[in-house]
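We were asked to recover a plausible sequence for a given structure. The inputs and outputs are reproduced exactly as logged, with field labels preserved.

PROBLEM: sequence recovery
POSITIONS: 138
GIVEN STRUCTURE:
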Protein backbone atom coordinates (compact mmCIF):
# COMPACT_ATOMS: atom_id res chain seq x y z
CA UNK A 1 0.00 0.00 0.00
CA UNK A 2 1.24 3.48 -0.86
CA UNK A 3 0.69 6.79 0.88
CA UNK A 4 1.96 10.30 0.17
CA UNK A 5 2.13 13.45 2.27
CA UNK A 6 -0.65 15.87 1.36
CA UNK A 7 1.48 18.93 2.08
CA UNK A 8 4.03 20.17 4.59
CA UNK A 9 3.16 23.12 6.78
CA UNK A 10 5.71 24.99 8.84
CA UNK A 11 5.08 24.24 12.51
CA UNK A 12 2.62 21.44 11.82
CA UNK A 13 1.41 19.36 14.76
CA UNK A 14 -0.28 16.73 12.60
CA UNK A 15 1.03 15.08 9.45
CA UNK A 16 -1.59 14.42 6.79
CA UNK A 17 -1.13 11.61 4.28
CA UNK A 18 -3.30 10.33 1.46
CA UNK A 19 -3.64 6.93 -0.10
CA UNK A 20 -1.92 7.00 -3.49
CA UNK A 21 -0.70 4.93 -6.37
CA UNK A 22 2.92 3.84 -6.85
CA UNK A 23 3.73 7.04 -8.78
CA UNK A 24 2.53 9.19 -5.89
CA UNK A 25 -0.75 10.36 -7.41
CA UNK A 26 -2.98 10.76 -4.36
CA UNK A 27 -6.69 10.37 -3.86
CA UNK A 28 -6.76 14.11 -3.11
CA UNK A 29 -5.15 14.85 -6.50
CA UNK A 30 -7.77 12.70 -8.20
CA UNK A 31 -10.58 14.74 -6.64
CA UNK A 32 -8.93 18.00 -7.68
CA UNK A 33 -8.54 16.69 -11.23
CA UNK A 34 -12.21 15.72 -11.43
CA UNK A 35 -13.74 19.08 -10.52
CA UNK A 36 -15.07 21.70 -12.88
CA UNK A 37 -14.17 25.41 -12.85
CA UNK A 38 -17.10 26.29 -10.61
CA UNK A 39 -15.68 24.04 -7.89
CA UNK A 40 -12.19 25.62 -7.66
CA UNK A 41 -13.20 27.50 -4.48
CA UNK A 42 -14.10 24.17 -2.88
CA UNK A 43 -10.58 22.85 -3.47
CA UNK A 44 -9.19 26.05 -1.96
CA UNK A 45 -11.41 25.50 1.11
CA UNK A 46 -10.21 21.91 1.34
CA UNK A 47 -6.57 23.07 1.19
CA UNK A 48 -7.25 25.60 3.96
CA UNK A 49 -8.89 22.85 6.02
CA UNK A 50 -5.83 20.62 5.61
CA UNK A 51 -3.53 23.45 6.67
CA UNK A 52 -5.56 24.33 9.75
CA UNK A 53 -5.80 20.66 10.72
CA UNK A 54 -2.05 20.16 10.32
CA UNK A 55 -1.24 23.21 12.40
CA UNK A 56 -3.89 23.13 15.10
CA UNK A 57 -5.73 19.80 15.05
CA UNK A 58 -9.31 18.72 14.60
CA UNK A 59 -10.68 20.81 17.48
CA UNK A 60 -9.70 23.99 15.65
CA UNK A 61 -12.09 23.22 12.79
CA UNK A 62 -15.80 23.93 12.84
CA UNK A 63 -18.00 20.84 12.67
CA UNK A 64 -19.24 21.79 9.21
CA UNK A 65 -15.63 21.39 7.96
CA UNK A 66 -14.58 18.34 9.99
CA UNK A 67 -16.61 15.80 11.92
CA UNK A 68 -16.78 12.20 13.04
CA UNK A 69 -18.74 9.93 10.69
CA UNK A 70 -18.63 6.41 12.16
CA UNK A 71 -16.33 4.08 14.10
CA UNK A 72 -13.18 6.24 14.01
CA UNK A 73 -13.78 7.48 10.47
CA UNK A 74 -13.82 11.27 10.11
CA UNK A 75 -14.74 13.57 7.24
CA UNK A 76 -13.25 16.77 5.90
CA UNK A 77 -15.87 18.82 4.07
CA UNK A 78 -15.57 21.65 1.59
CA UNK A 79 -19.08 22.27 0.28
CA UNK A 80 -19.75 19.23 -1.98
CA UNK A 81 -16.28 17.70 -1.65
CA UNK A 82 -15.82 15.10 1.06
CA UNK A 83 -12.60 13.41 2.17
CA UNK A 84 -12.68 10.51 4.63
CA UNK A 85 -9.81 9.98 7.03
CA UNK A 86 -8.70 8.34 10.27
CA UNK A 87 -6.02 8.89 12.91
CA UNK A 88 -2.88 6.80 13.21
CA UNK A 89 -0.30 6.91 16.00
CA UNK A 90 2.02 9.89 16.25
CA UNK A 91 -0.45 12.60 15.18
CA UNK A 92 -0.76 11.07 11.73
CA UNK A 93 -3.89 11.46 9.64
CA UNK A 94 -4.56 9.10 6.73
CA UNK A 95 -7.00 10.25 4.04
CA UNK A 96 -8.64 7.18 2.55
CA UNK A 97 -10.50 8.69 -0.38
CA UNK A 98 -12.76 11.51 -1.39
CA UNK A 99 -15.79 12.10 -3.51
CA UNK A 100 -18.21 14.78 -4.58
CA UNK A 101 -21.40 14.40 -2.60
CA UNK A 102 -24.57 14.49 -4.67
CA UNK A 103 -27.19 13.35 -2.16
CA UNK A 104 -28.24 14.54 1.30
CA UNK A 105 -27.03 11.54 3.28
CA UNK A 106 -23.47 10.26 3.11
CA UNK A 107 -23.64 7.02 1.12
CA UNK A 108 -23.01 3.95 3.30
CA UNK A 109 -20.84 2.58 0.49
CA UNK A 110 -18.40 5.48 0.98
CA UNK A 111 -18.19 4.91 4.75
CA UNK A 112 -17.62 1.19 4.24
CA UNK A 113 -14.89 1.94 1.71
CA UNK A 114 -13.09 4.14 4.27
CA UNK A 115 -13.28 1.37 6.86
CA UNK A 116 -11.93 -1.17 4.37
CA UNK A 117 -9.03 1.10 3.45
CA UNK A 118 -8.27 1.66 7.14
CA UNK A 119 -8.13 -2.10 7.74
CA UNK A 120 -5.89 -2.58 4.68
CA UNK A 121 -3.63 0.25 5.87
CA UNK A 122 -3.16 -1.25 9.34
CA UNK A 123 -2.54 -4.69 7.83
CA UNK A 124 0.05 -3.30 5.39
CA UNK A 125 1.71 -1.34 8.19
CA UNK A 126 1.88 -4.40 10.44
CA UNK A 127 3.34 -6.52 7.63
CA UNK A 128 5.90 -3.88 6.62
CA UNK A 129 4.16 -3.31 3.28
CA UNK A 130 3.42 0.39 3.74
CA UNK A 131 5.45 2.67 1.49
CA UNK A 132 5.54 6.47 1.54
CA UNK A 133 6.17 7.96 -1.90
CA UNK A 134 6.73 11.51 -3.03
CA UNK A 135 4.50 12.99 -5.68
CA UNK A 136 5.94 13.23 -9.18
CA UNK A 137 5.75 17.03 -9.26
CA UNK A 138 7.71 17.51 -6.02
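RECOVERED SEQUENCE:
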Amino acid sequence: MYITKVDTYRGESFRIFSLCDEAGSSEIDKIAASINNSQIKQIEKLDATFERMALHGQRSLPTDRCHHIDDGIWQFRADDIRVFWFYDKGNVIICTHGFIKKVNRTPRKQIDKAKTVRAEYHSAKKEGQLTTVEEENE
